[in-house]
Amino acid sequence: MINKYNKCWQEAMDCTGYGNHDVEYSFKVEDKTIIIAFQGSTSKIDWLFNFFFLKIPYKNMEKTFFVHSGFLARWEYVRDEILEKIDKYPGYKIKLRGYSQGSTTCLLAHEDIGWHTGVRPETVLFGCPRVFGFWHSKELKKRLSDVIRIENGSDIVPSLPWFWLSFRHYGKLIHIGKKRKLFRFSIKNHLEYGETLNG
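RE: above sequence
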């Protein structure tokens, strides 16, 4: 299993080439497969987005989801250009990869691309913060059920924004590294995904 997700990690790290407003991503096409990877926080602007955690409605929908406003803004900056690229490859498999803040863009892309194309992306997130709120959680569970979330040790980032702010995780959790300790939050573990996966 570790070997499988190590390859996903390498894909997540190859994440530059396109984008604007400090939202960088890579877009590759290999063997009838589109691989899109989103870069994590690298600038002051990225960190400002991290702290815009007011929940706002996500799209105009019959069942309204609420989402972290800063993370949604990042996805919306690149959404149209990414969907335009995907439309050039109908029927292709889609893989989405992201680490840290990049994984939040990845998660929003998973929901939006699946809805737009009818293709369920294969999505793997590393050290992903909470993105969506509780509202209509049953519907979100369905839409995000095949997302894989990987957490390393007692990584602090997946604990943010705090649960008591009504944010929650979706998707299947796979834990790597040392067992998570209650009330221990480690920045070091957040920076060690590559080392843990390489064992």
